[in-house]
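Protocol step 4 of 6.
Sequence for Response regulator (Corallococcus exercitus) entered exactly as in the expression construct, tag removed. Do not edit the line below.
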Amino acid sequence: MTDSAPLILLIEDEEDIRDAVATLLEMEGYRVAQCIHGQDAWNWLESHPRPGLVLLDLMMPVMDGQAFLKRLSEARMLEGVPIIVMSGSPFHPPGAVTYLRKPVSVASLMDMVRHFLPSSGEGPEGPRTS
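Step 5 output, structure tokens:
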């Protein structure tokens, strides 16, 4: 994977889910920055390059997904960056381009990610031919 691979910011407090999603995305040729809650992500955004896509859980400690979205909107940060919410909550918050209900299927997640952020086409086996 190269530095030119698309960058996804994954904000999820459950370590097992975070690790599984990050591994899946990395296998598809994406770079993944992992944060454990909204405040962690806010701090990360202040010192790192703008991601091409955000995957956001809603129910998290410290700063939940809704508070994070509100803060992004107020600061006009990440305008134009698609935000996909993944949550067990049936609520589709303003600011998200789409909502995936947990448990999220791998196929649904990858369809949404590819729709909003095409990968470099480089997985661990090299360029995709499909």
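Step 6, annotate. Helices lie at 15-27, 38-45, 65-75, 106-116.
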